[in-house]
Amino acid sequence: MAEKIAFDMNDNYCEQDTMQYIKPYMFIKGYAMGRRLPQTMLALPVARKLHDGQYRKDGMPYFTHPLKVCSTLISYGIDDDVTLAAALLHDVLEDCGELLPSGGQSLVEEYGISTEVMETVVLLSKHSGLNDQELGVYFRKIEKCPRAALIKLADRLHNSGSLYTFTDEKMAKYLRETKLFLLPMASYCKKYYPQYSNAFSILKTNITALNSSMEAMLERVAPVTE
Ligand SMILES: [Mn+2]
Q: Residue 66 C-alpha to ligand 1 middle, in angstroms?
Protein backbone atom coordinates (compact mmCIF):
# COMPACT_ATOMS: atom_id res chain seq x y z
CA MET A 1 0.00 0.00 0.00
CA ALA A 2 2.78 2.45 0.89
CA GLU A 3 4.20 2.04 -2.58
CA LYS A 4 0.80 2.51 -4.20
CA ILE A 5 0.16 5.83 -2.50
CA ALA A 6 3.71 7.10 -2.93
CA PHE A 7 2.54 9.43 -5.72
CA ASP A 8 0.10 11.11 -3.31
CA MET A 9 1.74 14.52 -3.23
CA ASN A 10 4.90 13.84 -5.21
CA ASP A 11 3.71 13.99 -8.80
CA ASN A 12 3.93 17.23 -10.65
CA TYR A 13 0.46 18.71 -10.40
CA CYS A 14 -0.61 22.18 -11.45
CA GLU A 15 -0.36 24.30 -8.32
CA GLN A 16 -3.33 26.46 -9.22
CA ASP A 17 -5.52 23.36 -9.64
CA THR A 18 -4.24 21.86 -6.41
CA MET A 19 -5.17 25.02 -4.50
CA GLN A 20 -8.77 24.62 -5.73
CA TYR A 21 -9.19 21.21 -4.12
CA ILE A 22 -6.57 20.90 -1.38
CA LYS A 23 -9.04 21.67 1.44
CA PRO A 24 -11.65 18.99 0.66
CA TYR A 25 -8.80 16.62 -0.21
CA MET A 26 -7.17 17.07 3.19
CA PHE A 27 -10.55 16.93 4.94
CA ILE A 28 -11.36 13.55 3.38
CA LYS A 29 -7.82 12.31 3.98
CA GLY A 30 -7.96 13.31 7.64
CA TYR A 31 -11.36 11.68 8.04
CA ALA A 32 -10.21 8.48 6.33
CA MET A 33 -7.12 8.34 8.53
CA GLY A 34 -9.18 8.89 11.67
CA ARG A 35 -11.71 6.23 10.73
CA ARG A 36 -9.10 3.89 9.25
CA LEU A 37 -10.58 3.70 5.77
CA PRO A 38 -7.76 2.29 3.62
CA GLN A 39 -9.60 2.22 0.26
CA THR A 40 -10.71 5.83 0.67
CA MET A 41 -7.11 6.81 1.48
CA LEU A 42 -5.96 5.05 -1.65
CA ALA A 43 -8.76 6.32 -3.90
CA LEU A 44 -7.84 9.96 -3.17
CA PRO A 45 -4.48 10.01 -5.01
CA VAL A 46 -5.75 7.57 -7.66
CA ALA A 47 -8.75 9.75 -8.58
CA ARG A 48 -6.56 12.85 -8.47
CA LYS A 49 -4.08 11.32 -10.88
CA LEU A 50 -6.73 9.96 -13.27
CA HIS A 51 -8.72 13.22 -13.47
CA ASP A 52 -5.61 15.40 -13.69
CA GLY A 53 -5.88 17.92 -16.53
CA GLN A 54 -9.69 17.58 -16.83
CA TYR A 55 -11.98 20.51 -16.07
CA ARG A 56 -15.66 21.04 -15.30
CA LYS A 57 -17.80 23.32 -17.45
CA ASP A 58 -17.45 26.03 -14.83
CA GLY A 59 -13.66 25.89 -15.21
CA MET A 60 -12.94 24.11 -11.93
CA PRO A 61 -10.58 21.10 -11.96
CA TYR A 62 -12.73 17.99 -12.57
CA PHE A 63 -11.38 16.36 -9.41
CA THR A 64 -13.34 18.90 -7.29
CA HIS A 65 -16.50 16.99 -8.33
CA PRO A 66 -15.74 13.49 -6.96
CA LEU A 67 -14.29 15.17 -3.85
CA LYS A 68 -17.61 16.99 -3.38
CA VAL A 69 -19.63 13.80 -3.87
CA CYS A 70 -17.49 12.03 -1.27
CA SER A 71 -17.51 14.88 1.28
CA THR A 72 -21.29 15.24 0.88
CA LEU A 73 -21.73 11.59 1.82
CA ILE A 74 -19.40 12.03 4.81
CA SER A 75 -21.45 15.03 5.94
CA TYR A 76 -24.61 12.88 5.75
CA GLY A 77 -23.10 10.33 8.11
CA ILE A 78 -21.79 7.76 5.64
CA ASP A 79 -18.56 6.22 6.91
CA ASP A 80 -18.37 3.07 4.81
CA ASP A 81 -14.94 2.66 3.18
CA VAL A 82 -16.26 1.05 -0.03
CA THR A 83 -18.90 3.77 -0.55
CA LEU A 84 -16.52 6.67 0.03
CA ALA A 85 -13.75 5.18 -2.12
CA ALA A 86 -16.20 4.43 -4.94
CA ALA A 87 -17.57 8.01 -4.64
CA LEU A 88 -14.07 9.33 -5.33
CA LEU A 89 -13.70 7.04 -8.34
CA HIS A 90 -17.28 7.12 -9.64
CA ASP A 91 -16.45 8.90 -12.91
CA VAL A 92 -13.06 7.43 -13.82
CA LEU A 93 -14.32 4.66 -16.10
CA GLU A 94 -16.50 7.09 -18.06
CA ASP A 95 -13.99 9.91 -18.23
CA CYS A 96 -10.49 8.42 -17.99
CA GLY A 97 -10.89 5.34 -20.19
CA GLU A 98 -7.63 5.90 -22.05
CA LEU A 99 -5.68 5.68 -18.77
CA LEU A 100 -7.46 2.46 -17.78
CA PRO A 101 -6.96 0.11 -20.75
CA SER A 102 -8.53 -2.90 -19.02
CA GLY A 103 -11.41 -0.89 -17.55
CA GLY A 104 -12.27 -1.66 -13.94
CA GLN A 105 -9.67 -4.40 -13.85
CA SER A 106 -6.95 -1.75 -14.28
CA LEU A 107 -8.11 -0.11 -11.05
CA VAL A 108 -7.60 -3.40 -9.23
CA GLU A 109 -4.39 -4.51 -10.88
CA GLU A 110 -2.55 -1.24 -11.35
CA TYR A 111 -3.79 0.76 -8.40
CA GLY A 112 -4.73 -1.76 -5.70
CA ILE A 113 -8.40 -0.75 -5.61
CA SER A 114 -10.53 -3.53 -4.09
CA THR A 115 -12.85 -5.60 -6.25
CA GLU A 116 -15.83 -4.38 -4.22
CA VAL A 117 -15.01 -0.72 -4.88
CA MET A 118 -14.32 -1.45 -8.54
CA GLU A 119 -17.65 -3.27 -8.95
CA THR A 120 -19.51 -0.32 -7.45
CA VAL A 121 -17.79 2.03 -9.91
CA VAL A 122 -18.61 -0.33 -12.81
CA LEU A 123 -22.26 -0.40 -11.74
CA LEU A 124 -22.37 3.41 -11.81
CA SER A 125 -20.70 3.77 -15.21
CA LYS A 126 -22.97 4.07 -18.23
CA HIS A 127 -22.77 4.80 -21.91
CA SER A 128 -24.18 8.11 -23.03
CA GLY A 129 -27.28 8.37 -25.18
CA LEU A 130 -29.40 5.69 -23.44
CA ASN A 131 -33.14 5.73 -24.09
CA ASP A 132 -35.72 5.73 -21.27
CA GLN A 133 -36.01 1.97 -21.22
CA GLU A 134 -32.24 1.49 -21.01
CA LEU A 135 -32.01 4.16 -18.34
CA GLY A 136 -34.71 2.32 -16.39
CA VAL A 137 -32.59 -0.83 -16.44
CA TYR A 138 -29.49 1.14 -15.37
CA PHE A 139 -31.27 2.79 -12.42
CA ARG A 140 -32.95 -0.43 -11.29
CA LYS A 141 -29.56 -2.09 -11.00
CA ILE A 142 -28.28 0.83 -8.98
CA GLU A 143 -31.21 0.87 -6.55
CA LYS A 144 -30.46 -2.75 -5.66
CA CYS A 145 -27.11 -1.57 -4.31
CA PRO A 146 -27.52 1.11 -1.61
CA ARG A 147 -23.86 2.15 -1.90
CA ALA A 148 -24.19 2.88 -5.60
CA ALA A 149 -27.52 4.63 -5.03
CA LEU A 150 -26.02 6.94 -2.40
CA ILE A 151 -23.23 7.90 -4.79
CA LYS A 152 -25.57 8.38 -7.75
CA LEU A 153 -27.80 10.71 -5.72
CA ALA A 154 -24.90 12.71 -4.24
CA ASP A 155 -23.57 12.99 -7.80
CA ARG A 156 -26.95 14.26 -9.03
CA LEU A 157 -27.11 16.75 -6.16
CA HIS A 158 -23.75 18.27 -7.05
CA ASN A 159 -24.48 18.30 -10.78
CA SER A 160 -27.91 19.84 -10.18
CA GLY A 161 -26.18 22.64 -8.31
CA SER A 162 -24.20 23.55 -11.41
CA LEU A 163 -26.96 23.14 -14.00
CA TYR A 164 -26.61 26.83 -14.84
CA THR A 165 -23.56 25.82 -16.88
CA PHE A 166 -25.84 23.70 -19.15
CA THR A 167 -27.82 24.83 -22.17
CA ASP A 168 -31.59 25.16 -21.55
CA GLU A 169 -32.19 22.04 -23.58
CA LYS A 170 -29.71 19.96 -21.63
CA MET A 171 -31.03 21.36 -18.36
CA ALA A 172 -34.59 20.32 -19.27
CA LYS A 173 -33.38 16.83 -20.20
CA TYR A 174 -31.46 16.50 -16.94
CA LEU A 175 -34.44 17.65 -14.86
CA ARG A 176 -36.73 15.20 -16.63
CA GLU A 177 -34.33 12.34 -15.96
CA THR A 178 -34.07 13.37 -12.31
CA LYS A 179 -37.85 13.32 -11.91
CA LEU A 180 -38.37 10.08 -13.81
CA PHE A 181 -35.55 8.04 -12.30
CA LEU A 182 -33.55 9.67 -9.50
CA LEU A 183 -36.30 10.86 -7.18
CA PRO A 184 -38.27 7.57 -7.37
CA MET A 185 -34.99 5.75 -6.69
CA ALA A 186 -34.40 7.93 -3.61
CA SER A 187 -37.91 7.08 -2.33
CA TYR A 188 -37.36 3.37 -2.94
CA CYS A 189 -34.01 3.38 -1.15
CA LYS A 190 -35.33 5.40 1.76
CA LYS A 191 -37.96 2.72 2.28
CA TYR A 192 -35.84 -0.39 1.77
CA TYR A 193 -32.54 0.65 3.36
CA PRO A 194 -33.57 1.98 6.77
CA GLN A 195 -29.95 2.22 7.94
CA TYR A 196 -29.42 4.95 5.32
CA SER A 197 -32.90 6.47 5.41
CA ASN A 198 -31.56 9.73 6.82
CA ALA A 199 -29.02 10.17 4.02
CA PHE A 200 -31.56 9.21 1.33
CA SER A 201 -34.08 11.68 2.80
CA ILE A 202 -31.66 14.60 2.81
CA LEU A 203 -30.49 13.80 -0.71
CA LYS A 204 -34.06 13.63 -1.99
CA THR A 205 -35.07 16.88 -0.29
CA ASN A 206 -32.05 18.78 -1.56
CA ILE A 207 -32.32 17.47 -5.12
CA THR A 208 -36.05 18.31 -5.19
CA ALA A 209 -35.35 21.87 -4.05
CA LEU A 210 -32.66 22.39 -6.68
CA ASN A 211 -34.92 20.88 -9.34
CA SER A 212 -37.70 23.36 -8.58
CA SER A 213 -35.38 26.32 -8.79
CA MET A 214 -34.04 25.13 -12.13
CA GLU A 215 -37.59 24.58 -13.40
CA ALA A 216 -38.46 28.13 -12.43
CA MET A 217 -35.45 29.28 -14.38
CA LEU A 218 -36.55 27.32 -17.45
CA GLU A 219 -40.05 28.76 -17.30
CA ARG A 220 -38.61 32.05 -18.45
CA VAL A 221 -38.06 30.36 -21.85
CA ALA A 222 -40.99 27.97 -22.10
CA PRO A 223 -43.51 26.47 -19.70
CA VAL A 224 -42.35 23.15 -18.26
CA THR A 225 -44.84 20.61 -19.52
CA GLU A 226 -44.14 17.66 -17.22
MN1 LIG B 1 -20.15 12.44 -11.49
A: 6
Q: How far apart are the C-alpha atoms of 92 and 118, rounded to whole Å?
A: 10
For the stretch 135-171, pLDDT in tens is: 999 999 999 999 999 999 999 999 998 888 888 888 9
What pLDDT, on the 0 to 100 scale, is given for residue 65? Answer: 98
Distances from the Cα of 148 to the Cα of 175, 207, 211, angstroms: 20, 17, 21
Instruction: Report the separation in Å between the CA atom of 226 and the middle of ligand 1, taken as the mean of its atom positions.
Output: 25
- Distance (Å, rounded) from C-alpha 48 to C-alpha 169? 31
Domains and CATH numbers, the chain: 1-125 (1.10.3210.10), 127-226 (no CATH)
SS3 38: helix
| Residue 158 Cα to ligand 1 middle (Å) | 8
Query: What per-residue confidence (pLDDT) applies to 163?
Result: 85
Helix (H, G, I), strand (E, B) or coil at 127: coil
Ligand 1 centre and the CA of 80: distance in Å?
Answer: 19
Whole-number Å distance, alpha carbon 127 to ligand 1 midpoint, is: 13
Give pLDDT tens digits for 54-107: 999 889 999 999 999 999 999 999 999 999 999 999 999 999 988 999 999 999
